[in-house]
Every structure is written in structure tokens, then in C-alpha cells.
UniProtKB/TrEMBL annotation:
<dbReference type="InterPro" id="IPR038425">
    <property type="entry name" value="GAT_sf"/>
</dbReference>
<dbReference type="GO" id="GO:0035091">
    <property type="term" value="F:phosphatidylinositol binding"/>
</dbReference>
<dbReference type="GO" id="GO:0005768">
    <property type="term" value="C:endosome"/>
</dbReference>
<dbReference type="Pfam" id="PF03127">
    <property type="entry name" value="GAT"/>
</dbReference>
<feature type="domain" description="GAT">
    <location>
        <begin position="203"/>
        <end position="291"/>
    </location>
</feature>
<dbReference type="GO" id="GO:0030276">
    <property type="term" value="F:clathrin binding"/>
</dbReference>
<keyword id="KW-0813">Transport</keyword>
<dbReference type="InterPro" id="IPR014645">
    <property type="entry name" value="TOM1"/>
</dbReference>
<dbReference type="Pfam" id="PF00790">
    <property type="entry name" value="VHS"/>
</dbReference>
<dbReference type="InterPro" id="IPR008942">
    <property type="entry name" value="ENTH_VHS"/>
</dbReference>
<keyword id="KW-0175">Coiled coil</keyword>
<dbReference type="GO" id="GO:0015031">
    <property type="term" value="P:protein transport"/>
</dbReference>
<comment type="similarity">
    <text>Belongs to the TOM1 family.</text>
</comment>
<feature type="coiled-coil region">
    <location>
        <begin position="242"/>
        <end position="292"/>
    </location>
</feature>
<dbReference type="GO" id="GO:0043130">
    <property type="term" value="F:ubiquitin binding"/>
</dbReference>
<dbReference type="InterPro" id="IPR002014">
    <property type="entry name" value="VHS_dom"/>
</dbReference>
<dbReference type="GO" id="GO:0016020">
    <property type="term" value="C:membrane"/>
</dbReference>
């Protein structure tokens, strides 16, 4: 029985965290993630149980199941954004941040997307908690890593949503989207401007939902390409497609941002906000991809990180994944990347 009580997944919150991070999930279970946040906010004991489950989930799957790790990081990020001080104190502890750093060390051969996710979270939390003495463990680790030469993602901290998330309002689109001129045939047609939000008909709602599925699919393809392609080693056609898909997603984001403040539908607005956030993350990943591409001959971020935390590189080379160009199923996206610009006819009639 002792092993049962020591099992962090035997608690109600632990069970939900295990479910929310199951590698068989097709995508994040946001309803379950938010339920986890609500449970954590009920008591400090639940917050501690949740943290035990998160730490166990990360340590058990380090170097083994990257999908579980990514889902767990998403749960962690969501909880920090939506939970209170009791949970923040646990997250900001220096020993936990050290565990996150070791997670992306060379021993575990982490993919670039995981390295970027962990470093981005540390950077955001360090900025959010820098003026709170009881939460400065993460800030100390951030400064130490910076001093050791760790390069963090380029993130516009000032324009990120705050950790203590208020009721969300219409977000400002990124500057590059504001400045971008999109021709009429590339735009999602908007409802006419009125004095207040527009109430959509059932037909309009169905049509918009269908078109947002196209956006989500293209985002998925873009994310897959950013994960699978190796900066500086990609096929020219793949690289051209990557940039074309990024440009198209930026055009679609401008239309999504415009829709957010003009539709009187809470569920649709929440979906638009989620898509906008994920698009911003994809664009940050693309920026980092381009930066890594220009310095592809330099030492890998994982190796630099390993040196900084005192972990030697692996002595035996792990089997290299097959080059992306050798698997047409991963790059032959012609059938999956129909022009978004030809698909968005929302309310054009």
C-alpha cells in the first residue's frame, strides 16, 4: 500500500494530469487542462499534488516519450497562467527549474521544439516573477544560464499575456501582421462593421468553423515541418513551402484578429484566441528556425546547454533519424496545403 500512496498519479489531480498528458491524445485536451487548473486553485494541497505529478511525468519520460513531455509542458504552462501563488511558489523553485534544464540536456537528445519550449517558459516566468522575492528561484536560474551563454528564444516579453491572466480582451496583432498588406482575394471576408459584435446565423457559424479547421490543419502542417526539417539541411522545395505556408498563416492571423472583436459568440471567440496564440508561437518557432539556419554549422543548442550545466555530450552517437527528404509522407504536402486564400469565403455573400 505504501507504493500506492507514494504514487503521484493515485490522487485525483494526478490522475487527470496523467490523462491530459497521454501520448495517444491527438491534440491537447483543453477542457481537461482547465479542469486541472480549477482543482489546483481549490487548495494548496492539490497544488502540491499536481506539482508532484508533473515532475514525475517529466522525469519518467525524459529521453523516452517526447509527446508526453510536450503535453506535460503545456499543462504546466496553462496552470502557471491560470493558477495562483500556491502553485507559482512550487514552479519557481530553483531545483525544479534545474530539472527542466536537465530535461533538454544532450543526454536526452531533445528535439528543437522541446528545447525552445523549456527555455521560453523559463524566460517568461523569470520576467513575470522578477519583482517577487519568494519566486526568484526561476529568475536566478535564468540569469545563471544567460551568463553561461545559453541563448533564449527571441520573445517580445512586453506584449505577452500576463501570468496573472485577466479576462482576455482583443489582442493586438503582431507588428509584422499590422504592416502586411493583404490583397482582397487573400482575406477572410469580414461581416460589415456595426456598432456592436455581430451575432452569426447557424449557417455562418458552421461555415466559419469549417474554415477555422482549415487554418488549424495548416498550422499543424507548419508545426510538423518546423519539427521535422533540419535548419540548413532541408530540400529547397521544402524550404520554399515552409516560407510560403508561414506567409499564408500570417495573412490568416490578420483576419482572425479582426474577427475576434466582431463576433458575439463566446465559444468561437475562445477558439479564435487560442488559434491566435498558437500562431504567435509558430511564428516564434519559425524565427528561431531561420536563425538556426544561418548558423547551422555552429554547436547545437543542446550541446551548449549540456556544457553549461556540466553534462558531457554522449560518447556514442545515437542513430540519426532518416533525412526528411527521404520520407515523402512527411514533406509531400501538396494535397494537404491547398491555398488557404482560396478557402476563406466566410460571409462573402
Amino acid at each position: 500500500m505504501a507504493s500506492f500512496f507514494n504514487n503521484p498519479f493515485s490522487t485525483p489531480i494526478g490522475q487527470r494530469i496523467e490523462q491530459a498528458t497521454d501520448s495517444s491524445l491527438a491534440s491537447e485536451n483543453w477542457a481537461l487542462n482547465m479542469e486541472i487548473c480549477d482543482m489546483i486553485n481549490e487548495s494548496s494541497d492539490t497544488a502540491r499534488d499536481a506539482m508532484k505529478a508533473i515532475r514525475k511525468r517529466l522525469s519518467q519520460n525524459a529521453g523516452k516519450d517526447n509527446q508526453v513531455i510536450m503535453y506535460t509542458l503545456t499543462v504546466l504552462e496553462t496552470c502557471v497562467k491560470n493558477c495562483g501563488k500556491a502553485f507559482h511558489v512550487l514552479v519557481a523553485q530553483k531545483d525544479f527549474i534545474q530539472e527542466l534544464v536537465k530535461l533538454i540536456g544532450p543526454k536526452n537528445d531533445p528535439p528543437a521544439v522541446m528545447q525552445e519550449k523549456v527555455l521560453s517558459l523559463i524566460q517568461i516566468w523569470a520576467d513575470a516573477f522578477k519583482n517577487q522575492p519568494d519566486l526568484n528561484g526561476v529568475t536566478q536560474m535564468y540569469i545563471e544560464l544567460k551568463n553561461k551563454g545559453i541563448e533564449f528564444p527571441q520573445t517580445d516579453i512586453e506584449h505577452l499575456a500576463p501570468i496573472y491572466t485577466p479576462q482576455r480582451s482583443v489582442p493586438e496583432p503582431p507588428p509584422q501582421v499590422v504592416q502586411q498588406t493583404i490583397s482582397p482575394q487573400h482575406a477572410i471576408p469580414m461581416p460589415p462593421h456595426s456598432n456592436g459584435p455581430t451575432v452569426l446565423s447557424a449557417e455562418q457559424t458552421t461555415k466559419l468553423q469549417s474554415e477555422l479547421e482549415v487554418v488549424a490543419h495548416n498550422m499543424s502542417v507548419l508545426g510538423e515541418m518546423l519539427t521535422e526539417l533540419k535548419p540548413g539541411q532541408e530540400d529547397p522545395d521544402d524550404y520554399a513551402l515552409l516560407n510560403e505556408l508561414t506567409a499564408t498563416c500570417k495573412e490568416m492571423q490578420a483576419r482572425i484578429v479582426d474577427l475576434i472583436g466582431r463576433i458575439n459568440d463566446d465559444e468561437l471567440t475562445a477558439e479564435l484566441l487560442r488559434l491566435n496564440d498558437e500562431l504567435n508561437n509558430l511564428f516564434l518557432r519559425h524565427q528561431r528556425y531561420e536563425k538556426n539556419r544561418t548558423s547551422s554549422s555552429a554547436t547545437s543548442p543542446s550541446a551548449i546547454l549540456g556544457a553549461a550545466i556540466g553534462v558531457p555530450p554522449p560518447t556514442t552517437g545515437a542513430p540519426q533519424a532518416a533525412a526528411i527528404s527521404n520520407d515523402p509522407r512527411l514533406i509531400d504536402l501538396d494535397a494537404r496545403t491547398e491555398k488557404l486564400t482560396n478557402s476563406f469565403s466566410f460571409m462573402s455573400e
